[in-house]
Amino acid sequence: MASIPISVLGVALLLAVVVAMEPVARRLALPLSLVLVIFGAAAGFAMDFSSHPLGASLSLSSEAFLYLFLPILLFETAIEIDVRRLLEDVVPIFLLAVVAVMASTLVIGFGLANFSSYSLVACLLLAAIVSTTDPVAVVALFKDISVPHRLTLLVEGESLFNDAAAIALFSVLMTMLTVGSGDASDAIFAFLRGFSGGFLVGFSLSILATQLLQFLPGKRMAEVTVTVVVAYLAFAIGEYGFHFSGVVAVVVAALVFAYDGRTRVSPKTWSFLVETWKQLGYWASGLIFLLAALRIPGLLADVGMADIFLLAVLLLCALAARGLVLYFLMPMMSAVGLAQKVNSDLRLVILWGGLRGAISLALALAVVEHPAVPADVKHLVATLVTAFVLITLFVNGLTLRPLIRILGIDRLEPIDRFLRGRAIAHSLGMVKDRLVVAADRYHIEPAARERLAEQYSVRMNEAETVLQADHVPSPGERLRSALVTTAQREQLLHFQNYHERIVSGRIVRNLVARAYDLEDRAKSEGQAGYEAAAREELGFSLPFRLSAELQRRFGSSTLLARALADRQESLLVGRATTHSLLQFAAERIPEMLGAQAADSLAIVLQRRLEAIEKALAALRLQYGEFAEVMQVRYLERAALRIENSEYQRLVDEAVISREVFKDLLRDLDVRWQSANQRPPLDLKLSPTELLVRLPFFHGLDAAFLESIVPLLRPRFIVPGETIIRKGEKGREMFFLASGAVEVKLASGPRRLGSGDFFGELALLTQAPRAADVIALAFCEVLVMTAGDFASLLARNPDLQAQVAETATVRLGRN
User: Measured between alpha carbons, how far is 740 from 781 in angstroms, rounded to an integer?
Assistant: First the structure.
C-alpha cells in the first residue's frame, strides 16, 4: 500500500516541476516542452531513479503512456480546431499526414535497410515510429509570434491524422515483426481496416454522445464528463474491442464534437468544456514529456559509431521524405485543383517544424518492452528514436523561430498594418478624450493632467506619421477588408443570438457556416465573391431539394415542412442580422477604413437585405399565417432575453435576493421552452384540399370529384424551378392550386396564377413541349399523367370542351 502514497507524491512533484519550469521557459524564450525535456533528461542522467522507490513508482509502461495520456492529448488538440476550415484544407492535410507517413516510412525504412544489416521490417517499424509529429512545441511558438492561422491549422491537422496513421502502421509492422507472418498486401489491408474502423467507432460514439447532451440541459459537469467518457471509450473500444485504430477513433470523435457539439450546449458550457480540456491537456503534456525524458538515459545506453552513422542516414531520409511530399506532391495536387495552394515559405516552415516528441518515445518503449522483439532491434529503435527526437526538438525547435522571422511570416499584411495603425490612432484619441473625466473623478492635479495629455498627443502624432509613411490601401482593398470584417462581425452576431437563446443551435450552425463562406469569398474574390456567396445563401440547399424530391416521389411532406420552417427562421435571423450590419457599417467602418469604404459596404449590404426581403415575401405569400406566428415567436424570445437581463441586473445590484432570482429564472425557463416550440407548418398538399381551389373542376358532382382525387399527385415547387422544359415529350399536365409560373413563349413570357392549368397542349397534340415553364414563387400543383388525363376527358364532355377551348386560344398565341 505504500506505493500508492509514493505514486501520488511523485505525480504531485512532477506537476510542481511543470509549474516551476514555466518562468524558466519564459525567461529563456523556449517552449515549455523543450525545457521539460531538458530537465527530465538531466535528472535522468544525474540520478538512478530505478533503484529509488519514488522513481520505481513513476516508471510507466509504454501501454500506460498511450492509454492514459494519448486520448487527452488528441481530444484536447482536436476539440478547438475549426472543422469547417480543416475540411477546406483536407487534401494538403491528408498529404502531410497519411501520404507523408507512408512516404516517410518507405524512404527511411529502405534507406536504413540499405546501410545496415537489420531486416526491412525492423527498419520500417523504426521509420513508422519517427513518422509521428508533435505539434505542442511548434504551435506554442506559433501563438507567441502570431503566424497565419492557416499555418497553425495545417500543422495541428497534420499532427492529428499523422499520429493516427503512424500508430496504425506501427501496430501492423509490430505484428509482422513479432509474429513473423504477413506480406505487403496484408499490411495494407490491416492499415485500411484499422483506419476506417477507427473512423466508424469515433463517429458513432460522438453522434450518440451529442444526442445524449440534449437530456442534460444546464448540467455543465455532466456535459463535460460525456466528452471525457467518449475520448477514453473511443480509444479503448477501437484498440481492444475491435482492434481498430484507437487514435483515429479519438480524433474523429473530437472533431464531430468540435463541429456539432458547440451548438448543442450553452456557450458558457462550451467555454467551460474547452478550458477543462486545456487544463487536462496541460497536465498530460507536462507529465508525458517529463516521464518520457526521465527514460532517455536508459534508451541511449551503449551508443556506438555505427549508431551515429545510422542516425545521420535517418535524419537525411526523414528530411528527404518530408520534402518529397511538400515540394512535389503538394504543388502537383494544387496544380490540378485538388488542394489550395500553400506558398513556399509556409512549406519550408512545415518542413523544418516536423518535430518529434513524447509519442515517438512511447512507441519506442513499446518495442523495448516487448519480449518477442530481438535484442538488436530493441537497441536500434531505442537509440535512434531517442537521438532523433532530441535532435528535432533542440535543433529544429530552437531554430524555427529565427527561420520564421527571416521569412517574414509573422509580419502583418499591408492592409492589416493599416488597420493596426488606425486602431492605435482611434484608441489613443478615445483615451485622450476620456482623460478629463477620469482626472475629475480621481481629483488629479492640473499639472499631472496636462503632462499625461501631452504624452498621448505625442503618441497620436507618431501614429499618424507612421500611417502616412506606410502602405495606403486602395479603395478596392479597403472594401475587401470591410467585407471581411463585416462577415466576421456576422459570425459574432450569430453566436450572440445563440447565447441569448434567440435562435436554436441547429439554425446557428448553418448560419455561421454561411458567414464563414462569406468571409472566405470576400478574402479571395472581394466584392464579387461576397455577393455571389450571399446569393448562394438564399438558394435552396441540397437537403432542402432532397426533402422536396422525397415529397414528389413518395408523398411524404414531413421533412419538407421542417426545411421550409428552417428557411423561414434563417431568413428572419438573416434580415435582423443584416440590419445590424448596416448599422455597424455606418458607425464603425468609417473610422477604420474611411467613408468611401463604408458607403460601398452599405450598398452591398442593402442589396443583400433586399434579396432577403424578397425571399421572405415569397414565403409570406404562400404561408402567411405560419410566417406571422414565427415572427411572434422570434419577438417573444427577444422579450424573454430582455426580461432575463433585467432580472440579472436587479440581483447584481442587490435589489432582489438570490432566492427570488432563482425562482424568477424557473418561471422564465418554462416560458423559454414554450417560446422555443416551433408551430407546425401545414403544407396543405392534400389532393382533396387542392382540388377545391381549382375552377377547372367547379360544378362537378361530389362523386365524380372523389373519383378524380386518386388520379392527382400533389407536388411542391420552389421558386426558379423549371417545371416543363421545351422540347421534351409531354407525359403529364399540371393544375396550379397556388403560386405563379411563367411560360417562356416565343412571342414573350406569359404568367399563369392560382387556378390555371398548363402542359395540356403536348398531351393533346402529341408534339414536343413548346416552351419552358418556370416557377415564380412557391407553388402547389396537382399532377395528372397523360393516360389519366385522356381518360378524364373521355368521361366528361364538358371538361373536354373546356380544355379544347383553352388549347385553341393558346395555340393561337404560340
Answer: 10
Gap between the Cα atoms of 752 and 694, Å rounded: 13
**What DSSP line would sit under 608-671, residue for residue?**
HHHHHHHHHHHHHHHSHHHHHHHHHHHHHHHHHHHHHHHHHHHHHTTSS-HHHHHHHHHHHHHH
CA distance 347 to 342: 7
Strands of the sheet with 757-758, listed across from one edge: 713-717, 779-785, 732-738, 757-758
- Alpha-helical regions (H) of 134-245: 136-145, 149-179, 184-212, 220-236
Q: Distance (Å, rounded) from C-alpha 61 to C-alpha 295?
A: 11
Cell of 548: 422536396
State the residue for C-alpha cell 481498430. Answer: 244
Q: What is the pLDDT of residues 530-541, one digit of tens each?
A: 999 999 888 888
Give the contacts of 554 (CB within 8 A, at least 6 positions apart).
Answer: none
pLDDT tens per residue across span 14-62: 888 889 999 998 888 777 888 888 888 888 777 766 666 666 666 667 7
* Among candidate residues 710, 712, 734, the one with its CA nearest the CA of residue 722: 734
Q: Which of 31-45, 74-88, 113-127, 637-651 has the highest mean pLDDT?
A: 113-127
Residues 6+ apart with CB under 8 A from 100: 131, 158, 162, 321, 322, 325
Instruction: Strand 740-745: give its sheet, edge to edge.
Output: 722-724, 772-775, 740-745, 748-753
- φ, ψ for residue 499 (rounded to 5)? -60, -35
Query: To which H or E segment does residue 734 belong?
Result: strand 732-738
For the whole prediction, is pTM greater than 0.90? no
Strand partners, 450: none
Q: What DSSP designation does 709 have?
A: G
